[in-house]
Amino acid sequence: MRAALFVFVITMAGTSRAADLKPVEVVPSLDFQRYAGRWFEIARYPNRFQKNCASDTTAEYALRADGKITVKNTCRKSGGEPIVAKGIAKVADANGPNSKLKVTFFWPFYGDYWVIGLDPDYKWAIVGDGDRDYLWILSRTPKLDEPTYDQILDIIRRQGFDPGRLITTKHGAADYTGVRHPTQVIPCGPQPRPRCLYAPFPPPSSC
Question: Does residue 8 fall inside a structural domain?
Fold first, then answer.
């Protein structure tokens, strides 16, 4: 009986903390021309669909003529083999902020891509979702200086995310020059849980 009561109290405490959190806020707007280009992943929440990414994770965005965005994500396995995934992003709501996007790597399934923090000069960005299940720190360079990283962590805390869950991404940990590996393109078939399609990386077929 005591054990059941203890579990009940813990559960209610967790529910109360979640209810106390304010909704995740996105930046007011995005300049897609400035946001386009290559970004390096600095850190992320662990997730199933990036479990094979050991290092050198990047995302490249290109604005299309129809207003949508072409997405190309790349990383390397522990043995150096590249993994490449391509998708399309679009503004989630034409009447809402354009910093709330949806991305798909297998139509018709879309996942949230919310820009919740952004450097005024577009040197770094924070991407998450409304449920605080996913989080990425992106930068135009493979590394961030400590004061900038601390600033980003402060934004993450104020948004109700837990910085303690972040894992950092290695870049340039090994030299793969001249090593020939076939590029792996991740298949994204229909999934029973489309929420595992969150950006900026798509899930493998095992989601």
Answer: no
pLDDT one digit per residue (tens) for the chain, 207 residues: 444 433 333 334 444 445 578 999 999 999 999 999 999 999 999 998 899 999 999 999 999 999 999 999 999 999 999 999 999 999 999 999 999 999 998 877 889 999 999 999 999 999 999 999 999 999 999 999 999 999 999 999 999 999 999 999 999 854 333 333 333 333 333 333 333 333 444 443 333
Number of domains in the chain: 1
Whichever domain contains 44, its CATH number is: 2.40.128.20
What CA–CA distance (Å, rounded) separates 111 from 69? 14
User: Considering the domain boundaries, does residue 146 fall inside one?
Assistant: yes
In sequence order, what DSSP letters do the residues of 31-55 get, joined into one string?
-HHHH-EEEEEEEE---GGGTT--E
Domain span holding position 187: 32-197
Interatomic CA distance for residues 74 and 83, integer angstroms:
6
pTM: 0.77
